[in-house]
Design goal:
This protein has helices spanning about 10-20, 55-60, 85-105, 140-155, 190-200, 225-235, 255-265, 295-300, 310-320; strands spanning about 1-5, 30, 50-55, 70, 110-115, 165-170, 175, 200-205, 220, 220-225, 240-245, 250-255, 270-275. It is α/β, with parallel strands linked by helices and about 325 residues long. The chain folds into 2 domains: about 1-175 and about 220-250 and about 290-305, NAD(P)-binding Rossmann-like Domain (Rossmann fold), CATH 3.40.50.720; about 180-220 and about 250-285 and about 315-320, UDP-galactose 4-epimerase, domain 1 (Alpha-Beta Complex). Helix 1 (about 10-20) links the parallel strand 1 (about 1-5) and strand 2 (about 30). Helix 1 packs across helix 6, helix 3 runs parallel beside helix 4 and helix 7 runs parallel beside helix 9 (about 310-320). The longest helix is centred in the N-terminal third of the chain and has 22 residues, at about 85-105. The model has no long low-confidence stretch (mean pLDDT about 95).
Length: about 325
């Protein structure tokens, strides 16, 4: 039986979708805390063993010894979160509790780290464990993920008891169905879709740097179904452990993202408008991210990622334009 934390979130609920629809697996437990009133729609179509509130998981684990793996996607994921006590409890202490339980019970542990740990990318985007201490996250969320990655490395290097498999996944810019509860933290694809539907335009940030034209800021956009393929691959290969980038390995521009959305809705490039970068993002805005995915490829992962255009088309046509948008 798999324990899936964050199963009501975007990535977690698509893991549940993959378990059901691709692997025909129903023996898993969803763990989460429903904060948004529509969040239960993220898993309403799923077949699973049980739903456990995140605060009850510790008690649940004491009474269940048939766990085959813990996939830990649950966390505060808002990059704007400023209450570090909340980040400490949810993103660090909770993860440490699950790591220790998996170590004591010999259970594989796969957890969500983040590309936010790379900060502005001044030290590159190499997922080698030897580089972790050189990274400088830009916000509390990124730091909480960085802290836990460093704590994990400390457990490994000091010879402490560890899970038989452990994988930390540095997700880059994930977009796709079931992100509708995330508000400002939802992907630019989702915001661009809503803007065009309401106002026939898509607003992108102007560039504050002379080496980047407006709209040509570059990110590694990865479709959520592709991101989940990485998770499932590692879940199936218990001999693999380590920190892994989860991205396509190919950066693309916000302009191309906007055009992909507009083209799917029958518009053209005249719909793209540029607005000033919000003051709270200045000096904290990544102009370029691109996952180095040589490591996971070197472990035999051969899945071909969708291009940005292909991913946006699947998202818009098969979800956002449908009466029922949920996977």
């Amino acid at each position: 039986m798999i324990i899936l934390t964050g199963g009501a979130g975007m990535i977690g609920s698509i893991i549940a979708w993959h378990l059901n629809t691709i692997l025909h697996e129903e023996r898993f437990v969803i763990v989460d805390e429903l904060i948004h009133p529509d969040q239960e729609k993220n898993f309403k179509k799923r077949k699973f063993s049980e739903f456990v509130h995140k605060d009850e998981l510790h008690k649940y684990l004491k009474n269940n010894n048939k766990v085959s793996a813990i996939i830990h996607m649950g966390a505060i994921s808002a990059t704007t979160e400023t209450n570090f006590n909340r980040l400490l409890n949810s993103n660090i202490r909770y993860s440490q509790m699950l790591w220790n339980w998996c170590a004591l019970n010999n259970v594989p542990f796969i957890y969500a780290s983040s590309a936010a740990t790379y900060g502005l990318g001044e030290n590159g985007y190499n997922d080698s464990e030897s580089q972790i201490n050189n990274l400088t996250p830009l916000n509390g969320y990124g730091y909480s993920k960085q802290f836990f990655d460093q704590w994990v490395q400390q457990q490994i290097t000091t010879g402490a008891t560890k899970p038989p498999q452990w994988c930390g996944l540095k997700f880059f810019n994930v977009y796709g169905p079931n992100e509708y509860h995330k508000g400002r933290m939802a992907s630019v694809v989702y915001h661009a879709f809503n803007q065009y539907q309401k106002e026939n335009e898509v607003r992108l940030f102007k560039s504050d740097r002379p080496d980047f034209s407006d709209g040509m800021q570059l990110r590694d956009f990865v479709y959520v179904k592709d991101a989940v393929e990485c998770v499932i691959y590692l879940l199936k290969n218990h001999q693999i452990s380590g920190i892994f980038n989860i991205g396509t390995g190919k950066a693309d521009s916000f302009k191309n993202l906007g055009l992909s959305v507009v083209n799917n809705l029958g518009g053209d490039s005249s719909a793209i408008k540029y607005i000033d970068l919000p003051s709270d993002l200045k000096n904290k805005y990544q102009y370029f991210t691109e996952a180095n995915i040589d490591k996971i490829r070197g472990h035999g992962f051969k899945h071909q990622f969708m291009t940005l255009s292909e991913g946006v088309s699947d998202y818009v046509q098969n979800y956002l334009l449908q009466k029922d948008m949920y996977a």
